[in-house]
Hints:
Layout (H helix, E strand, L loop, with lengths): L77 H25 L7 H23 L6 H25 L4 H21 L7 H28 L9 H31 L7 H28 L2
Helix pairs in contact: 1-3, 1-7, 2-3, 3-7, 4-6, 4-7, 5-6, 6-7
Amino acid sequence: MRSRNPVFSRRGFSRDNGYAGFNATPQAGGPAVGTQANPYAQGNPYAQQAGNPYAQNPYAQQVGAPPQAPVTPGAMTMDDVVARTATTLGAVVVTAVLSWLLLPVDEANLGKSYGIGVVAGLAAMVLAFIQSFKRRPAPALILSYAALEGVFLGVISSAVSTYIADGVVAQAVLGTMAVFAGVLVAYKAGWIRVNRRFYGFVMAAALGFVLLMAVNLLFTVFGGGDGLGFRSGGLGIVFGIIGIILGACFLALDFKQVEDGIAYGAPREEAWLAAFGLTMTLVWIYMEFLRLLAILNQSD
Length: 300
């Protein structure tokens, strides 16, 4: 099982063999040309053979057919991905707004609100890990993750807006939307080429980034202050920008995952996995924007 998100390990359409099938033309019934194996080949509950795992799926493309979205009901389509992603993001937004309104971060309620937000964030992380290791998507689990993540984001956003700078949250939301739109345009235009080298570079950079942040957190907890300074001052600005760039790279991987899933005729339920991954990546980007803007406003 491969991790494709810099925050949580999660299951995608590709397992075990990673992205060996990048740059290959999806064809049902046989392995992709020029690759060692199909990106869906191993460990997929729907896999039927080493080529297209959906080759025996009635919704899969015929041999030699060009990649295109299946039109037979029952296969995943772009509309399915958009609808599921809108649902999960909607759950995040609704619970974020409710937690902002119902969990005030004034001096009298700050400790309680922070406590609820942290517990919700940890619970969301646990649910994300559980879904990552499940063989099939669980919509209830994914929506629960989104709702709890929204509670965490609502509390954190409210605190930043109250104690650092009003308007930062709106800027972070606009920044996240801009990154999403920019990466989507660049991906569709072919400016971003998602291949094995790209995947390896992004995963190595993300691993190093997360390890540095973990070390910094440990120094902060046990040593006090800002730890090693990776989340404050000049270094904080640099690492905030790096975090946003990494999030953008993971968006490109998410888009490739969706494209491959549609081309291979993945079952409709797999759209929940795409929504799960996109939601996690967008939350990552938003948090990096929020942190970066908070640092910039504190330095003014």
